[in-house]
Amino acid sequence: MPVLRPIVFPMLALPLFAQCSDAGVCALERATPTSGHRISLVGQYGRSGSPDDLTFQSLRLEGQFRLGPRTSVTAVLPFGRVSGPYGSTSGLGDAILVVEQSLAEGSWGRLSGQLGARFATGEDDAAALPQRYQLGLGSTDPLVGLRLDAPSWELGLGYQKAGARSANGQEPLKRGDDLLFHLGARGSLGQVGGSLKAVAIQRLGRSDLREPDGSIRTLPDSDRLQVNLVGGLSLPLDRGWSLETRLALPLFKRPDNTDGLKRALSVELGATYRF
């Protein structure tokens, strides 16, 4: 059985965003090469786990469009709700845009460069709640990546430069930069496509908060390595439509959740139209 079949179902290019506990850099992992255009509507459910006990729900409109034989652009517009013991927030989240350019292609696969940003379109001080309840991080962050896509596997590196401090009234947060590494395999079993990959994020430096007196407090353990195991399935329907789902589980517990990015579980289900 080829590559992924002995493992599970392959890792078809499932470009569904925001599965890992990240600040936007995982968009580079999901902006996969495509031979055409696609539009997706994706629902997500996530839990932070204790002690915060936050629930995350979102509905995202995603599009990936070919601009030429070697260039594509991916855009994501999320709408979400975060609820927990102190209250809830809802509305528009931070939009993401990624441009991918093929650098080299052959029978071995494709090497691509990626450039993009996460834009501060979401609110970061709604309902006078802490930063972990907010749908926006309060900064526009540049993204850059490099990925290699072979017929049955992929690997890639990405980097996110954290922008300005959030304007949250309770927790004015300044995040550290993020380094991404992803490695996975893909294949198919009949008409069903599947995926299995490891997604690792290392925060380069600790995050910090500005106290009311103007002093800066560094957050311990905010630079802890994160590793997520992500599996996905894709079922083609009819006339260009497909049903896609992903499940992400953290392999290490993330102790700090001041930024609201911690996930104990994340599940996605989406419908995609390719043309």
Give an overview of the whole structure:
This protein has 275 residues and is mainly beta. Helix content is 2%, strand content 53%. It has a single domain (26-274), classed as monomeric porin ompg (Porin), CATH 2.40.160. It has one helix at residues 26-30, and strands at residues 38-47, 55-66, 71-84, 87-92, 96-106, 109-118, 141-149, 153-160, 173-174, 177-189, 192-204, 208-210, 216-218, 226-236, 241-250, 265-274. It has a twelve-stranded antiparallel β-barrel. β14 and β15 (241-250) form a beta hairpin. The model is unreliable at 1-19 (pLDDT under 50).
Q: What fold name stands as the CATH topology? A: Porin
Give the CATH superfamily: monomeric porin ompg
The largest pleated sheet is described as: 12 strands, antiparallel, barrel
Structural shape: globular
N-to-C order of helices and strands: HEEEEEEEEEEEEEEEE
**What structural class do the secondary elements suggest?**
mainly beta
- Low-pLDDT regions: 1-19
* Tally of contiguous helical segments: 1
CATH class: Mainly Beta
Could you say how many structural domains there are in total?
Answer: 1
* Annotation, overall tally of beta strands: 16
CATH arch. level architecture: Beta Barrel
Give the strand order of the largest sheet, numbering strands 1, 2, ... along the chain.
1-2-3-5-6-7-8-10-11-14-15-16
- Amino-to-carboxy terminus distance: 30 Å
Radius of gyration: 18 Å
Share of helix, binned: under 10%
Average residue-wise pLDDT: 90
Percent range for β-strand residues: over 45%
